[in-house]
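Q: Please design a sequence for this.
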C-alpha cells in the first residue's frame, strides 16, 4: 500500500486535507485538549485510503498520538483483533460468525461501525475492445473453477479465443470474500492463470500489463488508476457514486471499522481517533473515491460510540 498511498492517492489525500482544513472537527482537539498515546489499526486495504487520509489530518491536530495502520486484509486484520493486538479493525466485509466466536472466547467485546460505501469494480486492460459489460452470470462462469483453462470465447463466441489472465485480491481480503460470496456463491475460484495479492498495486500492474487480463478491487483503487484501466459494467450498470449509494450497482457494499470496546473506554487516544474518524469519514470517503453515508448514520454511530465511554 505504501506506493499506492504516496503516488496514486497523493492528490486525493491532498483534497481530503483541504476539506478537513475547511470544516473537519471533532475529538479532543475541538476543546483544545492535547492527547498522547498509541492507536493500533489493521485490516482491509480497501478501507485503508480512508484511514490514511483521516490519519494524515489527525496527526496535525493531535501530533503526540501515534496511529499505526496495517494493511493485512480484512481477515488478517480480524486475526490481530482477536489476538488483542489492535484497537480498531478495518474491514470491507461484515465480521464472520467464527470470528465473533473467537472474539467472545478471547473475552473481547467489540462494536461495528459502518463508515462508507464501496462498489467493487471489475476492470480489464485498456486495449480490451471486446468487453464493455458482463452479467453476474458471465462473471460467475468466467471466475468459477471447472478444471479448464478459461478463454474469452467461453463467455461469448464473438470474443477472442485467448486465455484469460486473472488478478484477484488475496484470500485474507474482504474484497475476495465479498466476490467469493456474491459472485461465486461460495464455490471455488479459478486456479489457472491467476495471481492473488493483498496489494492492490500488484493487481493494477497486472491488468495494465496484459491485454487479456481481468481483475477486481475497490472503487477508489479503480478511480485512482482509471486512466490506465477500463471498468466493466455489471448487468448494464457502471460503478459511480450515484449507483453505489443507491445500491443499483450489483457489487455495492458497505465498509466497516470494528472497535474494541475496552479501548474505547480506557484508551483516550483510541476513543478520540475513532470519534474523529466518524465525524470526518464522510468527507474523507468522498475525497479518496468512495461514497459517504447519510449524515444521520454518522450521527447515530457517534451516539453509539459515546455510549461505550460510560
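A: Design:
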Amino acid at each position: 500500500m505504501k506506493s499506492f498511498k504516496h503516488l496514486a492517492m497523493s492528490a486525493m489525500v491532498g483534497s481530503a486535507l483541504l476539506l478537513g482544513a475547511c470544516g473537519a472537527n471533532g475529538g479532543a482537539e475541538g476543546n483544545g485538549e492535547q492527547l498522547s498515546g498509541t492507536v493500533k489499526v489493521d485490516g482491509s486495504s480497501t478501507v485503508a485510503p480512508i484511514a490514511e487520509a483521516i490519519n494524515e489530518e489527525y496527526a496535525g491536530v493531535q501530533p503526540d498520538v501515534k496511529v499505526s495502520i496495517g494493511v493485512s486484509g480484512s481477515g488478517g486484520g480480524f486475526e490481530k483483533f482477536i489476538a488483542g493486538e489492535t484497537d480498531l479493525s478495518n474491514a470491507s466485509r461484515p465480521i464472520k460468525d467464527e470470528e465473533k466466536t473467537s472474539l467472545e472466547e478471547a473475552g473481547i467485546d467489540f462494536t461495528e461501525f459502518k463508515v462508507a460505501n464501496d462498489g467493487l469494480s471489475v476492470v480489464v486492460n485498456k486495449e480490451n475492445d471486446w468487453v464493455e459489460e458482463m452479467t453476474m452470470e458471465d462473471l460467475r462462469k468466467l471466475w468459477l473453477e471447472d478444471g479448464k483453462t478459461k478463454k474469452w470465447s467461453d463467455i461469448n463466441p464473438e470474443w477472442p479465443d485467448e486465455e484469460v489472465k486473472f488478478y484477484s485480491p488475496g484470500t485474507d481480503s474482504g474484497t475476495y470474500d465479498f466476490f467469493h460470496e456474491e459472485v461465486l456463491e461460495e464455490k471455488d475460484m479459478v486456479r489457472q492463470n491467476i495471481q492473488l495479492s493483498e496489494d492492490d498495486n500488484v493487481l493494477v500492474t497486472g491488468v495494465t500489463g496484459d491485454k487479456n487480463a481481468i481483475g477486481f478491487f475497490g472503487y477508489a483503487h479503480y478511480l485512482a488508476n482509471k486512466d490506465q484501466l477500463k471498468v466493466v459494467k455489471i448487468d448494464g450498470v457502471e460503478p459511480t457514486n450515484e449507483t453505489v449509494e443507491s445500491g443499483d450497482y450489483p457489487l455495492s457494499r458497505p465498509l466497516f471499522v470494528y472497535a474494541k470496546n475496552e479501548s474505547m473506554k480506557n484508551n483516550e487516544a483510541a476513543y478520540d481517533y475513532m470519534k474523529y474518524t466518524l465525524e470526518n469519514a464522510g468527507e474523507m470517503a468522498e475525497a479518496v473515491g468512495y461514497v459517504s453515508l447519510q449524515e444521520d448514520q454518522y450521527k447515530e454511530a457517534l451516539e453509539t460510540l459515546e455510549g461505550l465511554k460510560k
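Q: Thanks. Anything notable?
A: The CA atoms of residues 143 and 247 lie 23 Å apart. The first helix runs from residue 2 to 8.
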